[in-house]
TrEMBL record:
Lineage of origin: Bacteria, Pseudomonadati, Pseudomonadota, Gammaproteobacteria, Candidatus Tenderiales
Residues that span the membrane, as ranges: none
Listed InterPro entries: PQQ_b-propeller_rpt (IPR018391), PQQ_rpt_dom (IPR002372), Quinoprotein_ADH-like_sf (IPR011047), WD40/YVTN_repeat-like_dom_sf (IPR015943)
Name of the protein: Outer membrane protein assembly factor BamB
Domain Pyrrolo-quinoline quinone repeat: 1-77
Species: Candidatus Tenderia electrophaga
SMART domains: PQQ
Coiled-coil segments: none
Amino acid sequence: ERMVDVDATPLVVDDVVYVAAHQGRVLALSRLTGATLWRRDLGTSIGMSVDNEKLYIVDDEGLVWALDRRNGATLWKLDKLKYRDLSAPVNYADSIVVADFEGQLHWISKDNGAITARYQVDKAGVRVAPLVRDGILYSRSKSGRLEALRLK
């Protein structure tokens, strides 16, 4: 399958490659054969994250999606952060976390897509996805402020 304008980093889990294109599609491809396992008309240049069951996507409008990894079915969609210039989602415990142009981090429940917490990093905004290492979430704002947060 041919895709153009692939800006989001592909993800590889087991024998499946997940790839997304800006203003295009999200595909699950067999790593072994290259065959398309499923496709969705859903574009992103921002990025994706994945866990054992779900593929999480921030689309080009800022909607946050959870798709079933096996078949691409929508499990939930969050529209409350639309047009907030979100970062790629990252996995953090039972949540995914995204950052926005106002410098806020948003914790989103993996189960139902509800926003469960917010934290203001810096009013200058955050453009890059947070990073999680050893249970600590790191976020850097546009002004250079670095925050290290641990879930309690």
